[in-house]
Every structure is written in structure tokens, then in C-alpha cells.
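TEACHING EXERCISE
Course module: macromolecular assemblies
Task: Read the component lines below, then compare them to the predicted structure of the full complex.
Student: A.B.
Group: 4
Components provided:
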Amino acid sequence: QSALTQPASVSGSPGQSITISCTGTSSDVGTYDYVSWYQHHPGKAPKLLIYDVTNRPSGVSSRLSGSKSGNTASLTISGLQAEDEAHYYCSSYTSSGTVVFGGGTKLTVL
Amino acid sequence: QALLVESGGGVVQAGRSLRLSCAASGFTFRSYGMHWVRQGPGKGLEWVAVISYDGSKIYYADSVKGRFSISRDNSQNTLHLQMNSLRAEDTALYYCARGVTPGIYSGYDTWGQGTLVTVSS
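Instructor-supplied answer key:
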């Protein structure tokens, strides 16, 4: 159950777009369309942003979108805002019936 | 509105046991798979365990398999995590979470506020 691979940090200026990658294997991301993305502010519960690769829960901004190609999933945030500064995690269902998270990415809005 | 409230955390010596609970309200608890997720100090999120809506499917992370046991009481709308043989590396904030869909495969749209477990060596 190795963690999915995410960049430790990404940054962008307000109004710009950024993409966070999440690389797994053929036992998780590459086979199952059960990739999710979360935003996490310290001291608060994580917030679901994207589930099943591309689906946004109600209330989540359309500035956020998810995609997948092969063993890598991606989260794109367009029109960056100061409030987007947070930690972001991906997760995937695996062939073992378990779930694996990525190591997390710190997004800094410059 | 769906709500999850964890309890049962605390400070415990290594090798001892602790039982966490998660009280659910505002939704049909018996219809959803439920998960435990933890975050150690200075670390990222780590998935711990899942139980299907009826308890027929249960899976654990390798790091807790054989030591932790997840269960649910649908009559009481409560989720439990029995943690035995605790280790220092189990120190974390433990969240219970509900799947965004009734299955056990998709992400979690409802989280509790977390309960802190500290294992002293």
C-alpha cells in the first residue's frame, strides 16, 4: 500500500491556473475511476472537492476540475484565489479493497 | 444535514487498547459505507479502515491489520474502531467519514471533527 505520489508543493498567482498531479499504479489509479481530491486546512476536517475522477459535489466551485490519464490523476484549479491556499490530497480505491492517499500538496497563492 | 461526531480518544500507553466511536445523525446511516482516516502529527492523511453499509465487507490498511477492528451498530447509528496493541506511530487525529455514495469506493463528503489519540511509549 504505497502512498500515491503528489508534488510536495505548488504555487501560483491570483487568477492563474495550477494543476496538481497524483501518480499511482495499475493497481489503483490506473484501473479504477475512484479517484478523489480533498482540500485540507489545518485544524479543520478535509473537504471533498472531486470524486470518481471528475465529479464535483454540490457546492464545490466549477473552477475545480479533475481528470485522469493512465496511472496519473490531476486536479486543476483555475482562477486561483487567496482562499485556495491549503493542502490538497488525492486518494484512490485499490485492487486490495483498500484506499490509498497521496502524500499531500501544499498550494501557495503568491 | 449529515453530522458525524467522534469520541473516545485520549492518552494511552503503548501496548494498551482504546475504542473510538462515531455517532451519526441527519442521514440514513444504515445505507452508507463508513471509513476511518487518521492524520499523524506533521503527516498527511492515512486511510485506516472501511465497513460496508451492512458490515459484510471490511478492509484494513496494512499498518493496522490484525490490531484494529472496525464495526457498526445500525440500530444506534454508531461506528466503532477498536484499537489494540497500540504503538507510538498510531498517535494521530482520527476522523470518521461517510462515503459520498452508498458504496465503499468513492470519496468522503462528510467528516467528523476528529478525536485525538496519543500513544505514549
